[in-house]
Amino acid sequence: MNPSRPTQAIILAAGLATRLRPLTAGMPKACLPVWGRPALHHVLDLLRAWGVREALINLHHQPMAVVETALAWGGPLRLNFSFEPLQPLGTGGALRHASWFLDRRPFWLINSDVMAEADPEPLLNAFHGPGRPLAALWMVPDAGPRTVALKNGFVSNFAVSKPGAPGAVTFSGVHLLSPDVLRYLPATPVCTIIRAYLNAMAAGRKIAGVTLPDSYWEDIGILPEYLRAHAEILAAWRAGKPGGRLCDPHAEATLRALRRRGVRVDGFAAIGPGARIGHGARLHDCLVGPGAEVAAGADVSRAALAPNVRVHGLVQGLAVPAHVLEGVAEFLAQTGWPAEETTALPLGPRGSDRSFARLQRNGKSAILVQYGKERHENTLYAGHTEFLTSLRIRVPRLLAHHSRRRLLLFEDAGPRDLLGALAGASAARQVALYKPVLALTARLHTAGTAAARDQRLRLVAGFSPRLYRWERLYFAHHFLQRRLGLAPRVTSPILGDLLRLARRLEALPRVLIHRDLQSTNIILQPDGPVLIDYQGMRYGAAAYDLASLLADPYVSLPMPVQLDLLAEYRRRARTALPEELFWTAVIQRLAQALGAYGKLGATPATAYFARHIPPALAMMHRAVERLGREQAPHLADWLDGIGEMTP
Predict the structure, then answer these.
(1) Which of 76, 243, 286, 515 is the one with CA 20 to 30 A from 561?
(2) Domain tally, the chain
(3) Is residue 459 over pLDDT 80?
(4) Taking a C-beta distance cutoff of 8 angstroms, is the pair 575, 541 a contact?
């Protein structure tokens, strides 16, 4: 054994793993299987290979599960545990809390969700080399968010202004440290070790950043990374490359056995013990937990199934037992969906204080909605459902509502939305798909308006000068200023153009509108379209709904199709809505949408919204050109100058 190799290590396993919830509500992240073995076991294997003889594991979320998993490893390391009772203390706070474990020798610090294979010699050489750094950190040059800058082998910045820029690297979560780092921790109980590094750098200490050749690294902190790690590890095992040691040696035999039983496997499928896969099922880049059951003919794609769940139909993302969803068990029991027998498929984060999950049990499905206190409109969802149903405007049937617990249960309208149906469709097919949607829209605007006024339907505040102004400022703050960094001297003239356009919309008759009538809020069934996400209905310009529908950045309809569909709406609604007012509404609507994309794109859980920015800008440019540049000259000039913008 190389005497310079540290023999002590701290493994960080206390985090709540919020980005993998609700999967980690029932299983700590350290216990998640990676090719049949807990992630923690792979980390312990790595440390043993690096010469570690004693490790400490910090605990908080489901500590006994982590302890039992660690003890089941069965390796030669001496294991210690540090429990954080009140809250996770962060990487720095955890280190201070576990300082009793350390002596005066260097030690490793590693996250429990790091899957890695590497030779640590370059890290050791850097730590003991010139400059005597306080720490040597493993940096990855070609994966992850790449937010760290290096200069001459040392960290110069942990948060570069443009992540992913040339030369930026990703910190892997693997540290080689001097115990002196404790001197630089802030006094607060909860803190990150990065703050200690920044304090040390300010005091003249150096932090080495080292890339490791012929290595493998992946952080499994979110579902796409968790799945990608499995695919990469399988490929590495097949090619005899670093990372392959993490693979289940029986993986190939399992895949061959599945195919012989009539199961289609694309990419990888990691199958836990006791799992049952029905004939004709399709598995595509997925994990099936121990004891889980996949029904015959099911399509499980880019998914992770928790132990013992049962799924059918199309399954994407996470599948967990419904009882791990906080605060829903009693509600579900009262509605005929006992949580212990029901599988929940969370539908991913949305741009509001609501969460959605598709429930599955005995071949049936329903949609569970949980909403918060942030938006009053969510309390109107149930009443709007009854109102629209009475008008024969098709919406999902409301199965149950608990207003105090802010829970709704709807029938499942199905997974096929308008956006998905439009993929690859010809212009003629696009028109055919939109026509029944426009008929539904026209009915909402005409019969819906009359009924809402007659019944004095409770609605959120309608479109007014105040709301149009809010949308403009939302666009300016979250997109022009925060996303693009534009100065007020640039944004002010643009806002002036938008103000003049909004005044035209303010003068239009107000009808009952959906407010978010985009392709993902329209579900297609064999007997016609179904509207969802209508809790924000209000009075406003019909043109606003048409702008949402026909200038949807998710779809980017060709202009001839837009004009044909605009004419179809005029015929259905018996209105002479001028084309210029349609394009005016398009600009207003897209300003609001770009504000939302800017805000949501800045948050990791919803960063995918940023991909809609380029088509939204292109559609806004089309609207300005069609309306006439002289109607919004500053906006037109800015759109000319921005060119092709990447997310």
Answers:
(1) 515
(2) 3
(3) yes
(4) no
